[in-house]
């Protein structure tokens, strides 16, 4: 599979944005009243939307040339589940231990959680035990639909994605996804448009047409995405909503950003800093763990004592929170997530290699 460092770099930016967004509320809780982080960091919650676009792009990468193959379809589902669940269950277990020891410290403001549904990452009318895992419920739905599309010819993928997008747009123009059950809300939510957009630009990226796009036009697309698209999203306050207008504009802007960066990288016009790509590598661990790390840092800061008469203590607090989150993420990625993923991948490769061998033998 082609290694695109720009995708990992964007994952790094996305997860740092989500961390900064949540750091603002931790600072407000423990800083003693004065605030350093501006309300502008609310925009950074769109890091999750960027994750969805990147996810769609990656799904096309890992399934190229593997359509209409039962074994490859099983491999896809296995690797997606192995990517999501083992690492997630670790933070589920940690959060569950805290919940059992001190129930008031976990989601008490949200009326508690359904532990079974949280464990399986299934739609629930209660907040998930690991609150940030709500996005994983959407990811699993996207993977399920995409797995179904693998049974069709690969050349039909674009048409099927377009039909899925039109169905979502049509529904959300005439009805409200909020009026339905939790499972149906996931299916009808326009978040899927961002995933579909990521798939669409990946299809274009790997098509012959992408080579004919002039480099100056690629740079223009990047500049428009950053200097026009993002300020427009901020000016309209779309990051505060979950409606169709947000998903359409954010999908367009982040798709333009993603496509321009990967094209520039392929053409040797862009080099992503390795440190940023490394943050992207550990982004899943950082995403799952950062609320726990920020909570611990807040408790420690409470012991040190905040100084409402100065913002210097806030500056130190903010730097320590970000450093602690990234340092823990690096250690946990190296010692936990990567070994788990390597073992799961190795087992899957052995399992499906045997399945392919049996298929060849039977065909002979």
UniProtKB/TrEMBL annotation:
The keyword Repressor does not apply. It comes from the Bacteria. GO terms for cellular component: membrane. Residues 5-334 form the Acyltransferase domain. One of its GO terms (biological process) is polysaccharide biosynthetic process. It holds the Pfam family Acyl_transf_3. The chain crosses the membrane at residues 44-63, 84-106, 126-149, 156-175, 187-206, 218-239, 245-264, 284-303, 315-333. Keywords: Acyltransferase, Membrane, Transferase, Transmembrane, Transmembrane helix. Coiled coil: none annotated. GO terms for molecular function: acyltransferase activity, transferring groups other than amino-acyl groups. The keyword Membrane applies. InterPro entries: Acyl_transf_3_dom, Acyltransferase_3. This is Acyltransferase. It comes from Pseudomonas eucalypticola.
């Amino acid at each position: 599979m082609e290694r695109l460092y720009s995708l990992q770099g964007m994952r790094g930016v996305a997860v740092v944005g989500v961390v900064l967004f949540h750091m603002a509320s931790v600072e407000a809780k423990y800083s003693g009243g004065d605030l350093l982080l501006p309300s502008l960091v609310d925009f950074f919650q769109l890091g999750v939307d960027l994750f969805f676009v990147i996810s769609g792009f990656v799904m096309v990468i890992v399934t190229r040339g593997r359509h209409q193959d039962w074994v490859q379809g099983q491999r896809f589902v296995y690797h997606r589940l192995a990517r999501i669940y083992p690492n997630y269950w670790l933070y589920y277990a940690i959060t569950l231990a805290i919940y059992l020891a001190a129930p008031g410290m976990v989601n008490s403001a949200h009326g508690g959680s359904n532990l079974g549904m949280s464990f399986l990452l299934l739609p629930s009318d209660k907040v998930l035990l690991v609150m940030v895992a709500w996005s994983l419920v959407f990811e699993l739905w996207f993977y399920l639909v995409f797995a179904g599309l693998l049974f069709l010819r690969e050349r039909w993928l674009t048409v099927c994605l377009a039909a899925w997008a039109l169905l979502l747009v049509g529904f959300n123009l005439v009805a409200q996804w909020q009026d339905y059950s939790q499972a149906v809300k996931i299916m009808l939510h326009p978040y899927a448009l961002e995933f579909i957009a990521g798939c669409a630009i990946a299809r274009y990226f790997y098509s012959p047409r992408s080579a004919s796009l002039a480099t100056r036009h690629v740079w223009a697309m990047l500049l428009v995405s950053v200097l026009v698209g993002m300020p427009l999203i901020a000016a309209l306050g779309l990051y505060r909503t979950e409606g169709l207008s947000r998903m359409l504009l954010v999908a367009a802007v982040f798709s333009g950003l993603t496509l321009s960066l990967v094209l520039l990288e392929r053409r040797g016009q862009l080099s992503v800093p390795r440190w940023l790509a490394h943050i992207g590598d550990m982004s899943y661990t950082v995403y799952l763990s950062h609320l726990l790390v920020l909570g611990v840092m807040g408790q420690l800061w409470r012991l040190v004592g905040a100084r409402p008469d100065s913002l210097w203590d806030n500056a130190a607090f903010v730097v320590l929170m970000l450093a602690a989150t990234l340092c823990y993420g690096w250690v946990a990625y190296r010692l936990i997530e990567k070994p788990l993923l390597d073992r799961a991948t190795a087992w899957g490769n052995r399992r499906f290699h045997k399945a392919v061998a049996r298929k060849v033998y039977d065909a002979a």
